[in-house]
Amino acid sequence: NLDLSGQINGQQFEHLFLNASGVHCQSTTELDDLLNHPAVGGIVTKSATLEKRDGNPAPRYYELADGSINSMGLPNFGYDYYIDYVKQSHAKPTILSVAGLSAADDVQLLHQIQASDYAGLTELNLSCPNVIGKPQMAYDYAGTEALLKEIFAFFKKPLGVKLPPYFDLVHFDQIAAVLNQFPLTHVNTINSVGNGLWVDVASESVVIKPKGGFGGLGGRMVLLTALANVRALRQRLNDSIKIIGTGGVKTGADVFAHILCGAELVSVGTQLQVEGLSVYDRLTTELSRIMADKGYHSLSDFRGKLKTI
Ligand SMILES: O=C1NC(=O)NC(C(=O)O)N1
What we know:
Elements (H helix, E strand, L loop, with lengths): L5 E3 L2 E3 L3 E3 L8 H8 L7 E2 L16 E4 L2 E4 L8 H8 L7 E5 L4 H13 L5 E5 L15 H12 L6 E5 L5 H11 L6 E4 L3 E5 L1 E2 L4 E2 L7 E5 L4 H14 L5 E5 L5 H9 L4 E4 L1 H6 L2 H17 L15
Parallel strand pairs: 3-16, 4-7, 7-8, 8-9, 9-10, 10-15, 15-16
Antiparallel strand pairs: 1-2, 5-6, 6-14, 11-14, 12-13
Bound molecules: oxonic acid.
Oxonic acid binds next to loops.
């Protein structure tokens, strides 16, 4: 009886939960698992590159007490695999995530989507921190602006972007000034906190192989950064650009906080990896209890209504 829905580009997500791209979304079997789960409202594919990729050498993912560190390196089955999946009809909205290894790759990927008969949502990943030698595009404001100008000259389908975390209010101003120039359906924030390092004291060693142990951080330890990025971008972006809140969600209270900061929908990554699909049932129960206790019937009763003091 609670309304836990959200909308992006007029597409109704009956239930606010998605997977964070990269988690439980590389194979069609995993994607079907997500789509078939009642407490999942929509899915995001693993970011597709033009050609299939093995990704970085293992070990490349490590679970910590309060989150995760990963340097996967965009392992995926390639664009054709994912476009074939998302263009089939599905009961719930799909978001095709794509990641070029260069701006030219990004443009090529979007030309292919534009030429396809896929009519769903696309998300351009501008924030993978783990491709060796490649920067996170969305930290280059001029580069991002030039890329989006080139893309929107030909791309007429719904498009959002996956952003890295920003840590300076001026940087929020700068990326928002770029994004507000374009008819984006959404931004998905945050991607992992790039290039953290975990040290195992017993072995006196790093715990993942790529990049000498440097990897993107996820899970509870990034919640405060995720909330700040959702809030700051909600305060700065045009209302037409919705926000998918990703990062640090472990409890129903974390979900509630993301919505208070302005998220339209909420993704779960590390905690999905840790707990499996049942995480969505637990989060739904916990969120519903908080809403009921507060007398809320719908997410819109409190979305974006964070109080300041
Ligand atoms: O965008 C990404 N974010 C991550 O944290 N890891 C993956 C990856 O490494 O493939 N990509």
